[in-house]
Write a structure and sequence with these properties.
The complex is a heterodimer. By secondary structure, chain A is mostly helical. Chain A has 2 domains: about 80 residues, Arc Repressor Mutant, subunit A (Orthogonal Bundle), CATH 1.10.10; about 40 residues. Chain A contains 5 helices and 2 strands; from the N terminus they run αααββαα. By secondary structure, chain B is an alpha/beta fold. Chain B has 2 domains: about 210 residues, P-loop containing nucleotide triphosphate hydrolases (Rossmann fold), CATH 3.40.50.300; about 80 residues, Alpha-Beta Plaits (2-Layer Sandwich), CATH 3.30.70. Helices cover about 30% and strands about 30% of the residues of chain B. In chain B, β1 and β2 form a beta hairpin. The chains are: A mainly alpha, B alpha/beta. At the A-B interface, α1, α2 and α3 of A face α6, α7, α8 and α10 of B.
Amino acid sequence: MQISPTRFAVHPSSGVPIYRQLIEQVLALIVSGQVKPGDMLPSVREMGSALGVNMMTVSKAYARLEADGVVERARGRGMLIAEQTPQGSVASRLAEFQPVLEQAVIRGRQLGLSDRQIKEMLQELLKAN
Amino acid sequence: MSGNAVIRTENLRKSFGNTAVLNGVNLEIQEGQIVGLLGSNGSGKTTLLKCLLGLLRTDSGIAQLLGEPSWDLTAAAKENLGYVPQEVVLMPWMTVGDTASYTGAFYEHWQPKRVERLLTQGGIDSKKSVGELSVGQRQKLASILAMGHDPRLLILDEPVASLDPVARRQFLQELIDLAQDEQHTVLFSTHITSDVERVASHVAILVDGQVEYFGELDELKDRIKRVRLTLRNSSPESLRCPEAIRSVVDGNHWLLSIDQTRVDIQTLSERYDADVRVEDLNLEEIFIELCGQEAVASVSHEEPEASLT
């Protein structure tokens, strides 16, 4: 499948550089199963044109994704979503995950939820996804 | 590095009477870069552009364009150059179409079809006389004329100041399309930081007649961060970070703006036993951090040292 540039939206005035926004969005599409290995990203030109951003920014995002093994360059065709294998050690992936969960726990406490209620919801979410 | 430098200045200085406007500008812009030139009012943006173009004679230092000294540009260099000044001067009695052919007559590689397409796209009627156009339309026309000979280097002094949002977006899109083959170079001055964020690959920030920062926009955003430290133990008097761009202490909260290449956040948090929150800054916020130091300092009683180069 050819991924349409309309699937992406960048906010130039965010503090997050545009290339990192694009990387995040590609990863989000993959994780949520909206794109599959073998699907093709828009060409750099198409993407830059559609989003109205500098082509070099798009190239940079693609190059980083390629270096991380998220996408593969298919000769003469463009960038394909690669088969995903987890990157880095378990410890480093856990370290990356921790702050996300921490935020959720803090929010749960703010809402006055008990530890049991939080754990139950987490388990349900794990089952559902 | 200087292999493909399209613009190069070295210790460029320019004064008007006793007022020094440029105090040693060092800048090197490579082919294919789209550079947004930012600076507060009176920081010397227009003066710098005019010195680069050879419209003003520099007092000292080097100013080169397309490998030639700015003051003695050859016809060949000018053929590869497009420029739109802040205040556009056109003949009000001429029609748009005649203005285009008149301008085209000065250039060997004029592209009338392209100019026609851009005029139609911009909603400018070729049969109208220039005097009938609004300020924004005239600015648009001047920009189109500056691109009519497909220049390798385009220099624009606040090109979008009087354009409406749609026209501004169209114009920026045109810049992106122009530069996408990486053989064209664009330098544009502006106050509108969001435009720079959208199209620029690089940003140059002019403060007090010197280049405070020049580099990739992404790198700038990755470097400059706002850090909020909440101290668990140590007393606030002992807090020190001379490398910070800005530092404000309020009770056990410490607000810092830092350049990550100069200050390590992890070290800071360990030294002072503090919880840390790091915030990303957009270009406008970074610009204010870098240029608004004096204003901020008077409020915060801190000594803001540290400059970026």
